[in-house]
Design goal:
204 residues; six-stranded parallel sheet; alpha/beta; 6 strands
């Protein structure tokens, strides 16, 4: 039986697209006004709601100066509107296991989402990895949580939507991983198993 679960935040607890247009409006406006990426603009908008901006910048070859300008915008963005979790996440708030939240992103932005979703009471620990201030990866935080709390690896479960982030990190540590794939877009992900609804989650 699992004693602890780590959850990712974006697209694992709530859908980014539900707030993305409003949250990222200053960034999208700046990118549009730059005129550098007109042909790729719609693809960039879509990917920013799916993967970290640093990865988007590399993928689309965003120039150094424009990237720095965008990073400065993102560092200050917060969200103060209403937010809702995925409807199937609600029972996860009441599981009789230790729950941890580990998310990568800009500190102010991620803190504002945690507050808007009222997640503080649901987790034993909340960890925000801001790539602008630390070189730590999710794998490092996972290992830290396991060691600090004395969990055996088979007592631990990591849930997230990104095969190249939390799923990869968990696999490298030898911990069971669950890909939460709400849209069924990852057909061959290397996770212990895949779900599209939390009612499919197995804790034994």
């Amino acid at each position: 039986m699992k004693k602890a679960i780590i959850f990712d935040l974006d697209n694992t607890i709530y859908p980014v697209h539900s707030i993305g247009d409003k949250l990222f409006e200053p960034l999208f406006r700046h990118l549009k006004e730059s005129g550098e990426l007109e042909d790729d603009f719609e693809g960039i908008k879509k990917d920013i709601m799916r993967i970290p901006f640093q990865a988007v910048a590399e993928q689309y070859g965003i120039g150094k100066e424009l990237k720095e300008e965008c990073m400065n915008i993102l560092k200050e963005l917060t969200y103060d509107g209403p937010m809702e979790t995925f409807s199937d996440f609600e029972p996860m708030r009441h599981l009789q296991v230790d729950r941890f939240l580990v998310t990568t992103g800009f500190m102010k932005m991620q803190q504002s989402k945690v507050k808007a979703l009222a997640l503080e009471k649901d987790f034993k620990g909340i960890y925000i990895i801001d790539p602008t201030t630390t070189s730590q990866k999710k794998k490092d935080i996972f290992k830290q949580i396991i060691e600090e709390n004395g969990y055996a690896k088979d007592e631990f479960l990591i849930i997230g939507d990104d095969p190249d982030s939390e799923i990869k990190g968990g696999n490298e540590l030898g911990v069971d991983t669950v890909l939460y794939d709400k849209s069924n877009s990852h057909f061959e992900a290397d996770a212990t198993y895949k779900i599209s609804d939390y009612k499919e989650l197995k804790l034994d």
